Each structure stands twice: as C-alpha cells, then as structure tokens.
C-alpha cells in the first residue's frame, strides 16, 4: 500500500512539475502585442516628429514672410515719404521765389494737393504760424494762427519735418509733413506742409492695401510716440500702443521677426521694420493658429489615411504571428516527450519553414539521437580507467569521433614509458603501477580545459588537444616529457617517456589516420633514442629532444 501511495505522489509531483510557475503567456499573443506596440510607438513617434517638423517649418516660413512683408511695406512708405518731401521741397523753392504773391501761393497749394494726392490738404504758414494759404477751401483756416505743437515744432525746426499724429485745428487726426521756405534773399519766411488725414482715405491706406496679404496677416504702422497711424481696424487709428516688443524693436531701427502675444494675449507671428526717413514702426503679423491651420488639416488627413492600412496591417500581423508560432508551439509540445519512442517521428512532422525553427528541430532530433545512443552505451561500458582515473579507450574514441564529425582542428599526443618492462622486472608490478599513476598525474596536470587525457593500455597514454596546432602541441609535449624525466618515483627513481605528436589540420581526416600518424611519430622517437618528441603533419617531420 505504501508503494502504491508513493507511486501516486510521484505521479502528482510530475504533473505539478510539468506546469510552468506563475502566469504563462502564449507566444502568439506576446509576438502580436510586441509588434502592435512597436508599430504604434513607431507611428506615434513618426506622427509627432512630422508634426513638430512641419509646425516649425510653417512657423519659420510665416515669420520670414511677415518679416519680408514688413520690410516691403516700410520700404514703400519710405519711398512715399521721400517722394512727398521731394514734392514739398520743390514747392518750397518755387514759393521762395514768389513769396508775398498771394496768387502764386494759392496756385502752388492747389498744384501740390492735386498732383499726386499724397496729402489730404496743403497749408502755407509764415514764421508766426499764420496760415497764408490752404487748400482745399473747406478748411476755412486762411488768416488764422495755428497753435498745435506739430506746426510750432515744424516752424522751429527750419528743416524737413514729419510730425507725430495729432488733432488738427479742424478736428482731424493728421500727420503733418513740412518743408522750410526761404525767400530769394535766403531769409527764412515760413513752411509749406501737407497733412495726411489718418481717419480718412489717404495715401497710407492706399499704399499699404496694395500689398499682398497672407490669410489672416495684417500690418499696422505706429509713429515715434507709439500712435497708430494705420491699422485694419479703423477704430484703433490714433490709439497709443502699450508695451510691444516688435514696435519697440522697430523704433530702435531693428528689423526681423519674433513670436509675441498681441494685446489680447493671442500668440502672433510678427515681422517688423522701421520706415527710413520717418522713424515709424511697421509690424506685419499673423495669428499662430491661422499659420498652423493647414498643418491640422494635413495631420487629420494623414491619420485618416492610415486607418485602413493599419487595420490591414493588424490582420496580417495576426496571421503572421500564428504562422511563426505554429512550429515553435509544436516543438514545445514535443520537448517534454523526448524520451518517448515516437518523439523522432513527431519531430519529423513539424513544418519548420524558417531557420530558427529548423535549427531547434534539428537540435532536438540530434538530442534525441544522442540521448538514446548514450543511454545504450552507458549501460554497457564505463569511460574511466580504474588504475589512473584517466579516460579509457572508449572515451578516447568518442572524443575523436566528435572532433571528426565537427570538422575541428586537433592534435594527438601518443606517449609511451621508455623501458617499462625493465621497471616491472626490476622493481615489481606494484612499482610499475606507481610509475603509470605518476605519469598519468603528470599528463593530467598539463591538460588544459577541454583536453582529454587517456590511458590507451599498458604503459601507453594519449592526450587529445582540441583546437591546437602542431607548434602548440609540440610545446605541450616537450613540457610533459621534461616533467616526466625530472620527476622522482619513490622506489624507482627517474624514468623517461617518448612522445609522438600528430595534428589534424584539415577536415575531413579520419581519426584513425591521425592516431596512426601519432603512433608512427612515437615509433620514430623510440628509434631515435627514446626520451624524445617526434611530430608530424602530412609529410612534414619535426623532432625535439634533449640536447
């Protein structure tokens, strides 16, 4: 009964041992999950990278465009101011020649106002700020004295002058551009000035509106006192601006672009420049959101276009995962039954269609064959020499067979104790066995990891050196020979040994051929006086011994 219980416990333990501990995930799900996560991560990273690159490109393009736009507007305004001042200068020269001639004053005022429509009105003022002539007549200011700071500053300047925005005597928000008048005696007699009405249709409006606008882009102009001279929102013209990085930079004479919030806190992509000759600031800007609107549409289209491809890709990945995992799943099922008689047949039925699965199947087939072969051999033979503890002839044969099948380079040392029969006859078999053991110990001590020291029989030994060329094998053999020759054996004294070395450097070479070469080299060592090392590779013969 105890025996039956033990058998049940053993079976139960086996069933428990067959189950992997913890949560076991299916390889198909692992592969699919890994692939899906990798694809999603790659696509996500690609989309994010593409979005950032396109965003930065759009922002940079908008900044450069707005900077160029502001510079173009500033250049146009500068040309306009230069042209207007040139017209006024010509008029001032002509008036200086006819100063005091009321008819000429009126004719020149009319000509300047109508010539290019640069100004909404023209006024000729003497040094006492009294209006001598004005056009159009609707102003009704002839004979009156002007008290505005702009006119007073223009008179005092005695040079070309451009005023900040101010309220005129007629109640208009204007910019006053003037030129000094000198009579024929070069006496300063007054100024001629043109007014630009900022809140009416004027040359500034016409000039700026001619320029091309990007979607959502607009420009505004401010004077040195930060008064708005032009703005698309007419109600803001004349407004005094608060702190503005772009306006401040332009008023300092700088030009460029930057991203700044507007007075409502909306991020804007702005370009700025100064109007040469007038000192005004021109700012062209566009809401950042408007600049990036095409990017949102583009990314939406890209994502929508990816959905069908992603669905098809997931289906293909699922099918591929099943196809890849099927042979591995079959092999894993067979792995726990390698000792079964039908294991080899089952392995042959696995369709290992890719290299890794094929390699695993071949390895499992080899394992099954080796396992079954080793079990059979181990039941019949032992691999250790009982006297020396070295490998015996069978172990040697298996090692050589493995090296031969693997096609590896190896060397064989064939060692024989010199005059061993004399040792036995003189000192007895016990001392002979002691000599054999000491030689075996010396051989083992000079064996490296992976080498195999064997007792081939009687006083003959073999040392198999895998992956060792002939020169290295000769060095090892000579060390062993010297160690044996210089060692004392209790009750015997010193003995010597002869060694033959053969190297298998080219595959395939049968192991028995290599052994035969080693034996022939050993025979040469014996014939040459013993206590020597003789080696051979193909038809080459080398020797080493005491000098």
From TrEMBL:
Gene3D superfamilies: 3.30.70.270, PAS domain
EC number: 2.7.7.65
Top EC group: transferase
Predominant cellular place of this UniProt entry's protein: membrane
Domain of life: Bacteria
Subcellular location: Cell inner membrane; Cell membrane
UniProt membrane topology term: Multi-pass membrane protein
Keywords: Cell membrane, Membrane, Transmembrane, Transmembrane helix
Cofactor field: Mg(2+)
Entry-linked InterPro entries: dCache_1 (IPR033479), Diguanylate_Cyclase (IPR050469), GGDEF_dom (IPR000160), Nucleotide_cyclase (IPR029787), Rev_trsase/Diguanyl_cyclase (IPR043128), Sensor-like_sf (IPR029151)
Reaction(s) catalysed (UniProt annotation): 2 GTP = 3',3'-c-di-GMP + 2 diphosphate
Annotated ranges, domain GGDEF: 408-538
Gene Ontology MF terms in the entry: diguanylate cyclase activity
A single GO cellular-component term on record: plasma membrane
Transmembrane segments: 29-48, 302-324
Record-linked CDD domains: GGDEF, PDC1_HK_sensor, PDC2_MCP_like
Biological processes annotated in GO: cell adhesion involved in single-species biofilm formation; negative regulation of bacterial-type flagellum-dependent cell motility
Name assigned to this protein: diguanylate cyclase
Organism, as annotated: Pseudomonas fluorescens
């Amino acid at each position: 009964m105890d025996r039956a219980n033990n058998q049940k416990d053993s079976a139960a333990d086996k069933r428990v041992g067959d189950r992997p501990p913890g949560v076991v995930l299916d390889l198909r799900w692992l592969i699919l999950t890994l692939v899906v996560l990798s694809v999603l991560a790659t696509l996500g990273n690609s989309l994010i990278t593409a979005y950032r690159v396109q965003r930065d490109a759009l922002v940079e393009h908008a900044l450069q465009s707005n900077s160029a736009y502001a510079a173009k507007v500033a250049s146009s305004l500068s040309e306009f101011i230069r042209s207007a001042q040139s017209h006024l200068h010509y008029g001032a020269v002509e008036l200086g020649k006819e100063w005091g001639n009321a008819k000429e004053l009126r004719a020149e005022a009319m000509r300047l106002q109508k010539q290019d429509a640069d100004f909404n009105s023209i006024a000729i003022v003497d040094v006492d700020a009294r209006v001598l002539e004005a056009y159009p007549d609707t102003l009704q200011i002839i004979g009156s004295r002007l008290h505005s700071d702009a006119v007073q500053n223009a008179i005092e300047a005695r040079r070309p002058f451009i005023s900040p925005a101010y309220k005129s005597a007629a109640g208009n928000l204007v910019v006053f551009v003037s030129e000094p008048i000198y009579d024929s005696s070069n006496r300063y007699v007054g100024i001629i000035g043109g007014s630009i009405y900022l809140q009416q249709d004027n040359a500034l409006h016409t000039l700026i509106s001619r320029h091309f606008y990007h979607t959502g882009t607009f420009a505004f102009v401010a004077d040195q006192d930060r008064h708005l001279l032009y703005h698309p929102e007419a109600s803001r013209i004349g407004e005094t601006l608060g702190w503005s990085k772009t306006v401040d930079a332009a008023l300092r004479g700088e030009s460029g672009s930057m991203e700044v919030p507007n007075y409502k806190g909306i991020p804007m992509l702005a370009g700025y420049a100064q109007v040469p000759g007038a000192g005004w600031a021109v700012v062209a800007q566009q809401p950042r959101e408007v600049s990036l609107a095409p990017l949102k549409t583009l990314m939406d289209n890209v994502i929508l276009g990816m959905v069908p491809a992603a669905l098809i890709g997931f289906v293909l990945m699922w099918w591929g995962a099943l196809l890849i995992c099927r042979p591995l799943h079959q092999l894993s099922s067979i792995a726990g039954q390698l000792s079964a008689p039908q294991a080899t047949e089952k392995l042959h039925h696995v369709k290992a269609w890719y290299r890794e699965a094929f390699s695993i199947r071949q390895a499992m087939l080899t394992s099954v064959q080796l396992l079954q072969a080793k079990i059979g051999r181990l039941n019949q033979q032992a691999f250790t020499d009982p006297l020396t503890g070295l490998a015996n002839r069978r172990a040697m044969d298996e090692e050589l067979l493995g090296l031969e099948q693997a096609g590896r380079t190896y060397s064989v040392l064939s060692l024989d104790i010199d005059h061993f029969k004399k040792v036995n006859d003189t000192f007895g078999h016990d001392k002979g066995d002691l000599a054999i053991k000491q030689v075996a110990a010396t051989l083992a001590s000079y064996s490296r990891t992976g080498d195999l020291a064997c007792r081939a029989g009687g006083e003959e030994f073999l040392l198999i050196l895998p992956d060792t060329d002939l020169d290295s094998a000769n060095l090892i053999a000579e060390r062993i020979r010297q160690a044996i020759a210089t060692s004392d054996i209790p009750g015997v004294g010193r003995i010597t040994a002869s060694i033959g070395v053969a190297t298998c450097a080219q595959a395939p070479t049968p192991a028995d051929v290599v052994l035969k070469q080693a034996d022939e080299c050993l025979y040469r060592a014996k014939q040459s006086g013993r206590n020597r090392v003789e080696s051979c590779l193909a038809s080459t013969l080398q020797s080493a011994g005491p000098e």
